[in-house]
Amino acid sequence: MSLTHSLANAISGMTAASRRAEIVSSNVANALTEGYARRELEVTASNVGGRGAGVQIIGINRYVDRAVLSDRRLADAELDGASSRAQTLTRLETIIGTADDDGSLSSRIAEFEAALIEAGSDPSSDVRLTNVVNKLASVTETLNRQSDSIQSLRQEADASIAEQVDTLNLSLKQIEKLNSDIVRTGSVDASALMDQRQVIIDRISGFVPLREMDRGNGRIALTTTSGLTLIDGKAAEFSFDRSPIITADMTQEAGGLSGLSQNGVPLSETAMSRLSGGTLSVSFTLRDDTFVTAQSDLDAIAGDLMTRLQGSTDPTLATGAAGLLTDVGAFSNGTNNVGLAGRIALNATVNQEPWRVRDGIGATTQGPVGDATQINRWIDAMFENRSINGGTARSAAEHAAALVSRVGSARLDAEDRVSFATARWDTLRSAELANGVDTDHELQSLMVIEQAYAANARLIQTIDSMVQTLMEL
Asked: Please, which residues have CB within 8 angstroms of residue 361's CB and are 6 or more apart in sequence?
């Protein structure tokens, strides 16, 4: 081997060692950077004219375990969706109240029943009659407040959908741009762009369960696990119209609330099912199912109370006259129960004249102050086992307690799902991090690189000395 070839080999070795040192230092510096993937320099022996010509740099490899990354993203969607549902159901349980909550609907109804029993033992007591009125007013106020709070939760879910759709559209456009930039880089290292793209994909992986597919030249496509295309060349564009105010009668099915559209085409129920698994589908479920059911249960309880406290329970009432409870001051026959919990109110007549609790709402004058007949009718009506929507026959307080139990059970089930999803996510995240940058290994590599650089530098120095010696002959 000539001195010239030896010098070329040493220079190429120094160049490769220098580039390796640069990559290792980048690995160490970005060990905690989200989305950063470990790099390694890929080299091969160079050969010119059948003779060794040192080392040739082929490129930079970006190491990512795509199987683990894909599973972790699916775990993102599962965990975020489960957490969103659990947090919201916890808030719903706070609104409805728990079994031991003094402010729950079941407690308010129980207090009203106790006030009726107390008034029945001394119907001449104005204080006890007024207490009955006040306790019943607390029941209606609780129903009104809970109904309003449920609609507020629906509005929050609707706003969350709008925010997620905006973020999804922006992120897909950014991925489309990065795909193009990566292709245009050609032979230039595009690892930094790929890191940035991974961060963006991770940002939306909690919204919908994603699958990433390689399209060559560094480009990728994204679909949901059920096959709905998000980006494959051109990014899909989703649209959604936020509703600033939502009332109990507003539903997507009735046209009162917006659904989701892709590229201007409304998504069918089947297409929407392909988005299930992340926070986006959970927000739709909460808005259009969970909270609608909770409102319907409240309305049913309000209608049951209204029916118990009017009609045959009070002989003084004329046909079609409102009883102790009204639908915004009017009589209700139970045919328009949607949103009733938000409209139910105490009869203004009994609020002004508490003696009507004893003598009947339609009484023209006060009767004997010791007659508890009508109060006993109210008591019997409240404790009578009646069915709501064909369900189990219960007393008024038991129907409210059953609602509290259902909401509590749903919250516990959601928390169990969070625990499972968290354990799965932790495992996959640990596996992903295990494939990341190992700073100990990188520092050891740096020591080897330093020795290789020093050896090549020594070789160049030796060749220089030999050339100087030859020149002096």
From this structure: 314, 316, 317, 321, 322, 323, 324, 347, 349, 350
Give the 3-state secondary structure of residue 162. helix
Residue 440 neighbours by CB under 8 Å, 6+ apart: none
Instruction: Give the CA-trace dihedral at 191, 194, 198, 199, to 10 degrees.
Output: 80
Would the pTM count as exceeding 0.70?
Answer: yes
Please name the amino acid found at residue 429.
Answer: R
Distance in angstroms between the alpha carbons of the first and the last residue of the chain:
21
Residue 44 reports pLDDT greater than 60: yes
| DSSP H stretches of helix in 189-246 | 191-204
Count Cβ neighbours within 10 Å for each residue of 197-225 and write b for 16 or more, e otherwise: bbebbbbbbbbbbbebeeeeebbbbbbbb
- The total of other beta-carbon atoms located within 10 Å of residue 173's CB is 15
Band of the pLDDT at 54, cuts 50, 70, 90? confident
Distances (CA, A) of 350 to 4, 48, 236, 302, 355: 111, 106, 60, 18, 7
Q: Locate all alpha helices (DSSP H) within 42-121, ordered by sequence.
A: 66-96, 105-121
Dist CA 330 CA 323 (whole Å):
9
User: Rounded CA gap, 38 and 369, in Å?
Assistant: 88
Could you give the C-alpha distances from 68 to 49, 73, 205, 430, 460, in angstroms and in order?
44, 9, 14, 10, 45
∠ Cα 357 359 360 (to 5°): 70
Q: Over range 241-263, report the average pLDDT.
A: 93
Residue 229's pLDDT is 94
pLDDT at 78: 95
More confident residue, 344 or 43: 344
What are the CB-based long-range contacts (under 8 Å, 24+) for 219-222? Answer: 219/179, 219/182, 219/183, 220/175, 220/179, 222/172, 222/175
Distance CA 38, CA 154 (A): 44
Is the pLDDT reported for residue 49 higher than 90?
A: no
Burial of 50 (0-12, 13-18, 19+ CB in 10 A): exposed
Each residue's pLDDT tens digit, 144-183: 999 999 999 999 999 999 999 999 999 999 999 999 999 9
